[in-house]
Amino acid sequence: MYRDAIEGRIPAAGTEVALTDARGRVVARGLAEAGPIGVRVWCAHDEPVDEPLIEQRIDVAIDLRKRITPRKTDALRLIHGEGDRMPGVVVDLYGPHAVLSLDGEAATSRRGQLLELLRPRLAALGVPTILVRFGPRGERTVEHVEGPPPPEVVEVREHGMVLCADLMRGQKTGLFLDQRISRATVRRLAKGKRVLDLYAYVGGFSAAAGKGGASEVVTVDVAKPAIALAQRTWAANGLPEGRQRAVAADVPEYLGQAAEEGERFDLIVADPPSFAPSAATREKALRAYEKLHLACLRVLAPGGLLLAASCSSHVDRAAFEEALTRAAEERRVVLQVVDRWAAPPDHPRLLAFPEGDYLTVTLARVVP
Would you name the residues annotated as active-site residues? Predict the structure, then answer.
């Protein structure tokens, strides 16, 4: 709950607090937080945020993953913060390695308790190694706290495809696990196609296209270490070196040059980092999405497919697709929406928490 919606003094971050209505009745309990969020709500009733509660929440989350994890997949989200009623707490699995990510001082205050409860449960899942990721965004620290240290590059499986992750220095906790549905879709659609993977990071979309039988894949990311990981991911899947062209370049510059040179692609993946990290940047982000979509449409062949994604909860699907529509109008093409989706089942969201719908993906086709 945001600080400006709460009356009364909020104690130090991590302190358990009760929220009451005008009659003094307890309507929720949670942990005090520092910053714009005043309280991280754990219970929508009067129940203590104690060890039995946290233990029960962890067990319920693990039970769900046992039921929904795809075959031949050992990289997944075990606990998804608010979606599993554990605000600020994320646990991602990468084979025998777990990353506990703590967002905010409230969750960080329960670090020791969380580790004690997670340790035996992770061991039972065959996960001996635990890393903890904490600190303010942009200054995140990763500590190895349990089990054998991870290798510099961890190889995991997703629907049998190999993905390479750097758990100590990579973005997020190592991979963008929430794009599993998108990678599977690219793999299904790529056969015989010329594919462009923008903001490629470790090249998961590129490898998916290669596994799907793409005739050629161009992998673009501004970061040279990401390009190196993308090439390693490609090789780890046994894909022919000659079918991938990896380019370390700024995406807008690459798209501008590709348009000038008359390049055309049959399938383009545009999954940029968040353009709207806050509500104040929403309008600027929508203009950026429109500009990106227009640049993509300039190099998309007639009949081609654009997989357009946004990972910001501040940009809803309607606004995101309006930006896509404006780009199509400027390019003077007709777009068909072929499919839409969000994050996969291991990233659940509470029905009463629409902010949890942070990932928006639209698959659109240029009508030839």
Answer: 311
Answer whether residue 7 shows pLDDT above 90.
no
- pLDDT-derived band at 138, boundaries 50, 70, 90: confident
Same domain, 212 and 292: yes
203 and 119 fall within a common domain: no
73, pLDDT greater than 80: yes
- Residue 163 belongs to a domain: no
Question: Is 239 in the same domain as 125?
Answer: no
- What is the separation, in whole angstroms, between the first and last Cα of the chain? 48
pLDDT value of position 121 = 98
Residues sharing a CB contact under 8 Å with residue 207, sequence separation 6 or more, in sequence order:
161, 162, 163, 230, 233, 234, 236, 237, 239
- Nearest one of 261, 251, 257 to 293, comparing CA atoms: 251
Tell me if 10 sits within 8 A of 17, measured CB to CB. yes
Domain that holds residue 16: 3-43
340 and 314 Cβ atoms separated by less than 8 Å:
no
How many structural domains is the chain composed of?
3
pLDDT digits over 94-117, tens only? 999 999 999 999 999 999 999 999
Nearest to 80 by CA among 65, 97, 95: 65
The predicted model gives 244-259 an average pLDDT of: 98
Q: Alpha-carbon distance 320 to 362, whole Å?
A: 9
The reply to whether 161 falls in a domain is: no
180 and 107 within one domain: no
Do 194 and 280 lie in a common domain? yes
Look at residue 279 in the predicted model and tell me its pLDDT: 81
